[in-house]
TrEMBL record:
Residues 125-149 are annotated as: Disordered. InterPro entries: Cupin_1, RmlC-like_jellyroll, RmlC_Cupin_sf, YjiB-like. It holds the Pfam family Cupin_1. Residues 64-126 form the Cupin type-1 domain. This is FAD-dependent pyridine nucleotide-disulfide oxidoreductase.
Length: 149
């Protein structure tokens, strides 16, 4: 049975977030065969999500959100921490990732291969603490997501 967790993230001073929940489908794509990019692409396409890219993250990224686009994020390999719902408060990636230079609140989620996230428009997200370090944490995500009417 797939574990589904819903997170309701309140607006902050810098991030609108959404009244819609952030959804985390833990281990939805449990087998390596399920995580093949072509298979995932076909599954997303069949459900109205247009896949735009496969992305490999380094050790951190800046917090960001998409104001009018929902995003589905599929973890293909590796593991990482993903912070949702808050903005970075400094430009220094070391400080805003590990030094507390982020807005209070939000949620940090441990992501592993096979996890799927549905991120509503307006919800901030930031990936960090990737493992294996460098190019081991890969995501397949519909870059243009699903528009908000």
């Amino acid at each position: 049975m797939v574990e589904i967790t819903s997170y309701y993230l309140k607006p902050t001073r810098l991030v609108p977030n959404s009244p819609q929940p952030l959804l985390h489908y833990k281990g939805l794509l449990a087998s390596e065969a399920d995580r093949q990019p072509v298979s995932i692409h076909e599954r997303l396409d069949a459900n109205g999500w247009k896949t735009q890219w496969i992305f490999r993250y380094g050790p951190t990224q800046s917090s960001h959100y998409h104001s009018r686009i929902h995003e589905a994020m599929v973890v293909l390999s590796g593991s990482a921490t993903i912070r949702f719902g808050v903005a970075d408060t400094e430009d220094d990636p070391e400080k805003n990732t590990w030094g507390g230079a982020a807005e209070p609140g939000g949620v940090e989620v441990a992501a592993t291969a096979g996890d799927v996230f549905v991120i509503p428009a307006g919800v901030a997200h930031k990936t960090h603490d990737t493992s294996p370090e460098g190019e081991g944490f890969a995501l397949l995500t519909p870059g243009k997501g699903r528009g908000v009417p």
